[in-house]
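May I ask for an example protein's residues together with how it folds?

___
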Amino acid sequence: MDIKRAKGNAAGRSIGSAFKDLVTAVAVDPTSAPTVAEQTRNTLAKLDKVLAELGSDKTRLIQATVYLTDIKKKDEMEGEWVKWIGSNSDHWPQRACIQVGLAGKDQVEIVLVAAKK
C-alpha cells in the first residue's frame, strides 16, 4: 500500500502523510506572526489544508500535540484552539501541550494524527 505525502518547503521532510486509514500532519505559522494567538490561528489554517489534501479534516482528529516556546502563553493558544476545534465534543482529540525550543520566530508548532474520511 502506498504512502501519500503532502510536500512542504523544508528539505528532507513532508508536512503530512497518509497511510491506510491514518493521516499525520505538522505545521508552523508560514507568516511568523508576532503573537501566539496569530501563529496558532495561521498554523491551524495550514493544518486544515494539509488534512484536506490527505483525505481528512479536524472532525476526524485522534491526537494533537502542541509545542509552545512559552508555556505561560498556553491560554493564548487555547483560545484559538477552542474556536477552531468547535463546540462538538464528539470531535475533540486527546491533546498535549509542551514547552520546547523552536527555530527562528516560531512560537507554536502543532502535530496532528487523524483518521481518513
